[in-house]
Amino acid sequence: xxxxxxxxxxxxxxxxxxxxxxxxxxxxxxxxxxxxxxxxxxxxxxxxxxxxxxxxxxxxxxxxxxxxxxxxxxxxxxxxxxxxxxxxxxxxxxxxxxxxxxxxxxxxxxxxxxxxxxxxxxxxxxxxxxxxxxxxxxxxxxxxxxxxxxxxxxxxxxxxxxxxxxxxxxxxxxxxxxxxxxxxxxxxxxxxxxxxxxxxxxxxxxxxxxxxxxxxxxxxxxxxxxxxxxxxxxxxxxxxxxxxxxxxxxxxxxxxxxxxxxxxxxxxxxxxxxxxxxxxxxxxxxxxxxxxxxxxxxxxxxxxxxxxxxxxxxxxxxxxxxxxxxxxxxxxxxxxxxxxxxxxxxxxxxxxxxxxxxxxxxxxxxxxxxxxxxxxxxxxxxxxxxxxxxxxxxxx
Length: 396
Ligand SMILES: Cc1ncc(COP(=O)(O)O)c(C=O)c1O
Fold this sequence. Notes:
Helix content is about 45%, strand content about 15%. The chain has 14 helices and twelve strands. The radius of gyration is 21 Å and the shape is globular.
């Protein structure tokens, strides 16, 4: 009998990510980015970081006491800053004790799942969607259940969610604004989902949690307003990351907040469970320099107006070249239709012109491709003629 070298959970996640890894290995690593590459792939920064971020980190790295770098789980300064900001922005009585400071959004989602899942419990999450919901679910002992969004509109498919809920359902993930479609789910859909979850929780005799993944909450365009699912459903855990809003994903800072409308006894139990989840997951708290800097980082944000201008320029240029592309309401992604059925082959044609996009079939959107607008304006200008040339070549 063959003896497994690594856990089946990790093997399943590796399998799920196989096409993405193949794309990275075969296309990106082998060919390599040229010096003038236009990189629209993974939402990495292409410009120097915000000066305010650098200054805050330098300021708070300087110790002001012997305990500066001691073991501290959640720094009270960070917790209170998040709770204050949530109270102001959302008008709800968020409490510092209900905020866990995490290693980014990954850390917030992982802690939430570890805190509430029993082995085999099911987690419903959107497809297309962020690449690691399944992996984090398995790592926490759960069973991933992707549920398709409504094709085209990318609305929540409430009928499909209702059909997927069963006695083992423990968590439903809602990501708004949504990566990669940029959809912001309207209040009516969130209210309807809340009704459905309340009824299903009652029917199955256990709470189904809503995990609201909101790292793009502040990256919204055209006056659109992000609405948190926590406003509709009390048993909501809200996950956030500073990686997007500061465009510094390598500095790992985020939080998990318990909705203040959740019954107090449940919040008290969850506070403890979340902290233990972080600890038993390898002391997965954010570093103290970042935690101390957090109150200053709360006031910083990339230039969303400039990002919106870049989005408009890209949409206009792509449409002029014959691409079909919708205008996203938030996030920093575009998901145009690929002009040929094989989106990986199409991405390779662009890569030959040093324009790098993510093929849709590695991001659960076959027939499309994803552009991350974290590229520079100069890259957009260099890339548009390449997009036009490749479109002409495909059309023959
Ligand atoms: C929807 C979504 N959730 C969570 C994350 C994780 O964010 P971070 O890397 O800042 O932890 C990302 C990052 O791409 C994301 O797009």
